[in-house]
Amino acid sequence: MFDFDEELKKLPASPGVYLMHDAADTIIYVGKAVNLHNRVRSYFRKIVGRGPQIDKMVQQIARFEYIVTDSELEALVLENNLIKEYSPKYNTMLKDDKTYPYIKVTVGEDYPRILFSREMKKDRSKYFGPYTSAAAVKDTIDLMNKLYQLRTCNRKLPGDIGQERPCLNYHIRQCMAPCQGYISREEYRKRVDQALDFLNGNYRPVLKDLEEKMTQASENLEFEEAIRYRDLYNSVKSVAQKQKITDSDGEDKDILALAQDETDAVVQVFFVRGGKLIGREHFYMTHVQGYDPSQILLDFVKQFYAGTPFIPRELMLQEEIADIDILEKWLSSRKGSRVYIRVPKKGTKEKLVELAAQNAYLVLSRDKERIRREEGRTIGAVKEIAALLGLDHISRMEAYDISNISGFANVGSMVVFEKGKAKRSDYRKFRIQSVSGPDDYACMKEVLTRRFLHGMEEKEELDRKEIDHALGSFTKFPDLLLMDGGKGQVNIALQVLEELHIDIPVCGMVKDDNHRTRGLFYQNEELPIDTHSEGFKLITRIQDEAHRFAIEYHRSLRSKAQVRSVLDEIPGVGPARRKALMKHFGSIEEIKEASVEKLCEVREIPEHIAEQIHEYFTERNKGG
To answer: In the chain, where are the structural domains located?
Structure first.
């Protein structure tokens, strides 16, 4: 038993990280402290006004542990790592885990290339970005290669010069073929320098040069060349226009602001590189109830910049946050040069922060509206069904279907919907064991009996181990059973539940002559349902899903049985050899016609097995 009073006394007055565990020993919160003794003890004092979220967390703490560090900076880094590792329930969490594209110029090579990269390494290359659009990065790289005709291959130059013929890029005038020595290293480097100048935002020399070449080609009646230069000119102009000037200091900076409601927060980030706004992105933060904007921004900064490879020179924030000094030290150590965190109060910078805040609010509002519409299709539809059946509450619904062809390979399907959404991790398939003919009622009885007996056994096991919950789909019983049929199917389900002493409402999906649901059968009564309602649409989706899942399983068994029915009768042919034969020949018919020599071409088939296969099909043909 964890002795809180005793353990609290042992806490050192040192910087470090503390981890709160619940009764199941799950880490529910990770925090850092300048003084562990004071910080951890504060959770267990009777303090008013620290917020319902923290109070709720404290009530669940069964034990705590801590890790002492040499400095607050080390504690910050460790806290980030542990939050990322354990995703604790009560830490505000950055929901998005995105990697942004960069343009990489391999200036460390003798003949550099311009490449697309998702990470920034210390490899003597120059990186531009990050950008928010991978498509835009690829378009820009494509344009650069057309403009400067740099190589894109992986050949090791100058060592491989002259060893192979030039590739297609040389013939379509997108590469000067340094692999053949057609361009000197010095001339190639000039082109690389021009490309770097372009990536730094200096477009004017390129536009001027292309315009002159286009005019000259047109005057010389070289119209194809003129069109090519015109297209390049327009491409460069398009790239140049996408870069919106936002500041004259030419610095790299990120502008951060957020919008928040009762349950969610969105942080909007504007990426400014070289004084140009190159893109923006929004990020969701979860577990934000009870936290003020400054705390959410603080958590975002720590989590986001722990994972991004590029750190700008300056962060401009909407709110003052705690630990600015220690954060600046941490970011500066990661970047390798000084990083500043500022909260602008006036001028252009303040307007940019306000613009980011407006964008965050728009994203949050837009998504709330989308979520509201989605809830109409899901939770709203479930409420409609509950009201129609007179039930107080429905969350989890399970639907079942049987599939067979003339009694062959009877199978059953179980699909699960929670809060109106398919929960595919809880879907289950049943191969019928006790029924050999086409008897859907008997098959359904077996499926339901196995499903609920399995669930009851799992629950007993959990009770013995004194565990509150399990991940198994059978342990959790539904609030409503949906049967793919009317009165007959419902009565089978009720019979199974009665025999097992389980009380669950059972509803049948009654179909018309065209096999479309026309109503629900519940408590010996057919209830009409509005076919235009969201509840009806959800019932139809569930019915279709149960049917699809059963058919899909039956089809897979049929295809396996068709292969097994012939090849598995041959001595020495097991699953591995059967698979190899089918992969090599493509069909049973091709295997039947194959000679011993052809069969031996399959690596897994030795000569004596090939002879057995050939003899088997020869005898079958004689008898057939």
So the answer is: 4-91, 98-201, 202-242, 253-367, 382-552, 568-623
Which has the minimum average pLDDT: 278-287, 486-495, 557-566? 557-566
The whole-model pTM stands at 0.42
- Give, as one character, the DSSP assignment of residue 478: P
| Interior angle at CA 216, CA 212 and CA 217, nearest 5 | 120
Residue 6: pLDDT band with limits 50, 70, 90 = confident
Per the structure block, which two tokens stand in for 287? 């577990």
Distance CA(420)–CA(248), nearest Å, equals 52
Query: Residue 17: helix, strand or coil by DSSP?
Result: strand
Residue 576 has a pLDDT of 83
Mean pLDDT, the chain, whole residue set: 83
Query: What's the one-letter identity of residue 174?
Result: Q
Strands (E), 274-387: 276-286, 314-317, 340-342
**pLDDT (average), residues 15-24:** 90
**Topology annotation, domain 253-367:** Nucleotidyltransferase; domain 5 (3.30.420)
Statement: residue 249 has pLDDT above 70: no
Contact 493, 448 (CB under 8 A): yes
Helix H or strand E encompassing 144: helix 134-148
- Return the CATH number of 382-552, one of 3.40.50.11310, 3.40.50.300, 3.30.420.340, 3.40.190.10: 3.30.420.340
SS3 content of the chain, % helix, strand, coil (to 5): 45, 20, 35
